Amino acid sequence: MQQVTRAGTPVDVDGNLPAVGQAAAPLTLTNTDLVDVTLANWAGKRKVLNILPSVDTPTCAMSTRRFNELASSMANAVVLVVSADLPFAAKRFCGAEGLDEVETLSTFRHPAFHKDWGVALCSGPMSGLCARAVVVLDEQDRVIHSQLVEEIKEQPDYDAALNALS
Fold first, then answer.
1. 101-112, pLDDT tens digit by residue?
2. Which partner from 46, 51, 115, 142 sits 20 to 30 angstroms from 162, CA to CA?
3. What is the distance between the alpha carbons of residues 60 and 42, in angstroms, rounded to a whole number?
């Protein structure tokens, strides 16, 4: 079991975040049209998975905005924002913020994603949500960058994610 912190308090995280060089674990998530999607929906593209607890928190909202800004400079890449938020809430957030360069995906029908991808918060007040992480996949869905953010309230390393795409 891994640990991160939330405001300095340890929080347990179940599962193992995919490591650089590994093939990505299969996933099924739900998009804002309530359609289930898999990595095959973006076959041949590089994928940045910005995994977060909820777009309704300031840090998550900030990282979604930042990846939206960066997305236009990422050749042959898509930014997928993954959370347990309902698709309606994620769609409303992106619409209100004018964010059209990211795609939001929900784990609400597919809670196995949390453990399968090593982001299952399983203690503390945010238990049941995803830990903050960034996983970058190449065109063949191999992991080329992987970061479990140690403090939930901090931003991921955007430069490291972008450098993996270079």
1. 999 999 999 999
2. 115
3. 23
Annotated catalytic residue within 60, 94, 122, 130 = 60
Give the pair of three-digit tokens for residue 62.
Answer: 């900030």
∠ at Cα 2 (128, 160), nearest 5°?
95
At residue 125, φ and ψ (nearest 5 deg) are: -70, -15
Told to judge if 60 belongs to the known catalytic residues of this protein, a careful annotator would answer yes
How much is the pLDDT for 74? 84
* Residue-wise pLDDT tens digits, 20-53: 999 999 999 999 999 999 999 999 999 999 999 9
The two three-digit tokens of residue 142, written as one number: 């191999």
pTM above 0.90, yes or no: yes
